[in-house]
Amino acid sequence: MNLQDYQKFVTAVTSKESKDLTTFMNRLDEVDGNYLDKTQGHGPDVNVPLLITAALGLSAEAGEFVELPKKIFFQGKPLTEDVLFHMKRELGDVIFYWMNACTALDLDPQAVIDENFNKLKSRYPDGEFKAEHSENRKAGDL
Q1: pLDDT of residue 40
Q2: Which end of the chain is more exposed for a tag (fewer CB within 10 A), N or C?
Q3: How far is it, in rounded angstroms, from Cα 106 to Cα 66?
């Protein structure tokens, strides 16, 4: 397969919301609850602009954090106090956008942490990492 054929394939399997601004804006309105389908009922309240901000910000800031260990482990960058401080600042940015996501979804941040703890406690019942628990998850363990 050549790149032009692959590009046609990718275009064909990409959602209309991803390719058309009007369709995307209509979907934002649907998710925001402005044009609800009465047969589907009303879903949870979501702050759509803040959720988009959080999603993009989390990805960007996680990428900025990941860049530093990549340079340390694969490019010979020394692990200095300045680099550690830089990683600390990037982790703070991740938390900033994580908090925005909690706010956008009207989630209690403590409840999110508690849910994660309970999920991991169930996955690792002995309280320690075991590869078999990581690779062979129970039904519903996301």
Answers
A1: 64
A2: C
A3: 28
